[in-house]
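Section: Multi-chain targets

For targets with more than one molecule, the full set of components is provided together so that the structure can be written out for the assembly as a whole rather than chain by chain. Components appear in the order listed by the source. The example entry contains two components.
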Amino acid sequence: SQKIEQNSEALNIQEGKTATLTCNYTNYSPAYLQWYRQDPGRGPVFLLLIRENEKEKRKERLKVTFDTTLKQSLFHITASQPADSATYLCALEGGSSNTGKLIFGQGTTLQVKP
Amino acid sequence: DAGVIQSPRHEVTEMGQEVTLRCKPISGHDYLFWYRQTMMRGLELLIYFNNNVPIDDSGMPEDRFSAKMPNASFSTLKIQPSEPRDSAVYFCASSARQGLENTEAFFGQGTRLTVV
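Its structure, encoded as tokens over all components, is:
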């Protein structure tokens, strides 16, 4: 069956360090993958999209990689700050290709300590 | 645009009652999604529409759940009769299609449903 897996345990790091979050998927062949941030009591907010032909994408302190062989995406936050504390979710297109069906992982909660 | 608008923000109802959640997507978006979020199961896709047509409702848990999209600017998710296990946060999201991929999904603030 199709599955998206993210670290279920919270990630605690010290301010200034790099946070690395993992998204693994099975039985999908996504053409692209998205990352979202969710704060308590709010809906997810889009951060980045990476396509299958892109190995890496950057936006300010964020970096995303996409390895279609390993079926994995890594999400990095460099020089982390307490304000980065939130839950981060990966999402990809489920079912057959080009369906628009957006499926989310469970999310990983990041806590950045000052 | 004011973004995706959901109502109500909070709903407390008694078991057995009908509950209707409402969503106004962003104008021009042709995809609309309904998700349910709980601690145990995360963000689950219930149903999604493309150009007002339901495409995949395989995530709808039971026949007690139904969704409609009568026009491009309005959708409802109905639970009848409601049960305590339906308690969750329900999100509506919308996005547009560009070529072979969807643009980012914009989420509403969610409706926190409590069934007692």
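The two ends of chain A are 41 Å apart (CA to CA).
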